[in-house]
Every structure is written in structure tokens, then in C-alpha cells.
Design a protein that fits this description.
Largest sheet of chain B: 7 strands, mixed
Helix content of chain A: under 10%
Order of helices and strands of chain B: EEEEEEEEEEE
Radius of gyration of chain B: 13 Å
Structural class of chain B: mainly beta
Strand content of chain B: over 45%
Distance between the termini of chain A: 40 Å
Number of strands of chain A: 12
Number of strands of chain B: 11
Order of helices and strands of chain A: EEEEEEEEEEEE
Largest sheet of chain A: 6 strands, mixed
Number of helices of chain B: 0
Radius of gyration of chain A: 14 Å
Distance between the termini of chain B: 34 Å
Shape of chain B: globular
Strand content of chain A: over 45%
Helix content of chain B: under 10%
Number of helices of chain A: 0
Oligomer: heterodimer
Shape of chain A: globular
Structural class of chain A: mainly beta
């Protein structure tokens, strides 16, 4: 089974600064999807950004961008100009295109934004 | 306007009771899921239904039984609740293999006393 690893249980960043959250995964597949979800204290799971493995270009969504290194099986999330509202738990997730509708989630990184 | 809704939002109950959590999505998706998030925030899939058919059934106790009356609903019934069932339960939906993104409900916090 695929595994998703987030090696940073906790991270902190100063407001307006940039922070990078790391994610690695293990797979033998060549085509798949990767996601970052945000879970604020409200507990709602919110999609931040997604990446299709066959696309070379890194996905970007406003202040959020990814560094997708397919060969290294790495999918880090960069948050620029951090805001207080970015404080949340961030989950990296993998979805296979071949093995049904199963999502695999990492264990999450808790991000604190310091005013 | 809510895409994926769950009721109730909070559920406090005694050990041994039977309870249900309801989930509805108005996105027209054909696949729905139940996840359990424990106290350490680890998110684990429990079930997945595609067009009302069970396609993922991870190792969960038989006390947990999903029911999908139609594509827009996936309810979770739990019998004989135990202390270890205390967690946040998330419902999610996606459009099968075409719409790869899962949309999550707000979660139901279950506390078993």
C-alpha cells in the first residue's frame, strides 16, 4: 500500500514570512494525484492545492505553491506571506488512479503562525 | 449551499448505546467516504461507497455499519459504543475517478462516556 510521510509534526512561522511543509510518499505507480488539505480549529477539512503527477509544472494557488519532485517522491507545500488564518493542521494526501477511490493521508503537520 | 453536511455536529453518549451519524452531499458525486480521526489527528478511512455499493471496507469492528440509501447519502450506524470510539468522524465525497478531489464535511465529534 502507498504510504505518505510528513516528518514535521509541528512547525511555526512568523506572520508575513514563508514556511515550507514537507511530504514524501511511497508508490510504484507513475500516475496519481497529490493533495494538501488544511484543517483549522473548526475541524473542517479544506482542500488547499492539488497536483497531478503527470504534470511537470508545480501547482500554485495564490500564496500556496508546491515543489513536486516526482523522482524523489517529494511534495512540499510552501506558504508565502503567512497569515494568522493559515494556522492549522496540514495534511498531505495521495490518491491512486489505479486502485479505486482510496486516499492515503499523512499524519499531519501542525502550523503555528506567530504574530 | 453546504456541499457535504453531517449531523449531528457533536454527539455525547454512554457506552453501550447505539448511535447514527448522517451525511449528505449535494455535489452530485457518486462516491462517498467515512473517515475516523483519532486524538492524535491521524485520519483513517473506514468505508467508501460508489453508486450505493460498498467498495472500500477497511478493518473496522462489525459494530460499525454504513448505509447508503442513495448516492447523495451515506449514514454511519454504530452499535454498542465503546470508549475507544470517541473520535471525530468525517464524511467526504468525490466524483469517482474523474473528480479526484474529495470534499469533506465539517466532522462529527463523538464522545463516549
Amino acid at each position: 500500500a502507498q504510504t505518505v510521510t510528513q516528518s514535521q509534526p509541528e512547525m511555526s512561522v512568523q506572520e508575513a514570512e514563508t514556511v515550507t511543509l514537507s511530504c514524501t510518499y511511497d508508490t510504484s505507480e507513475s500516475d496519481y494525484y497529490l493533495f494538501w488539505y488544511k484543517q483549522p480549529p473548526s475541524r473542517q477539512m479544506i482542500l488547499v492545492i492539488r497536483q497531478e503527477a503527470y504534470k511537470q509544472q508545480n501547482a500554485t494557488e495564490n500564496r500556496f505553491s508546491v515543489n513536486f519532485q516526482k523522482a524523489a517522491k517529494s511534495f512540499s507545500l510552501k506558504i508565502s506571506d503567512s497569515q494568522l488564518g493559515d494556522a492549522a493542521m496540514y495534511f498531505c494526501a495521495y490518491r491512486s488512479k489505479n486502485t479505486g477511490n482510496q486516499f492515503y493521508f499523512g499524519t499531519g503537520t501542525s502550523l503555528t503562525v506567530i504574530p | 449551499d453546504t456541499a457535504v453536511s453531517q449531523t449531528p455536529k457533536y454527539l455525547v453518549t454512554q457506552m453501550g448505546n447505539d448511535k447514527s451519524i448522517k451525511c449528505e452531499q449535494n455535489l452530485g458525486h457518486d462516491t462517498m467516504y467515512w473517515y475516523k480521526q483519532d486524538s492524535k489527528k491521524f485520519l483513517k478511512i473506514m468505508f467508501s461507497y460508489n453508486n450505493k455499493e460498498l467498495i472500500i471496507n477497511e478493518t473496522v469492528p462489525n459494530r460499525f455499519s454504513p448505509k447508503s440509501p442513495d448516492k447523495a447519502h451515506l449514514n454511519l450506524h454504530i452499535n454498542s459504543l465503546e470508549l475507544g470510539d470517541s473520535a471525530v468522524y468525517f464524511c467526504a465525497s468525490s466524483q469517482g475517478n474523474k473528480g479526484e478531489t474529495q470534499y469533506f464535511g465539517p466532522g462529527t465529534r463523538l464522545l463516549v462516556l
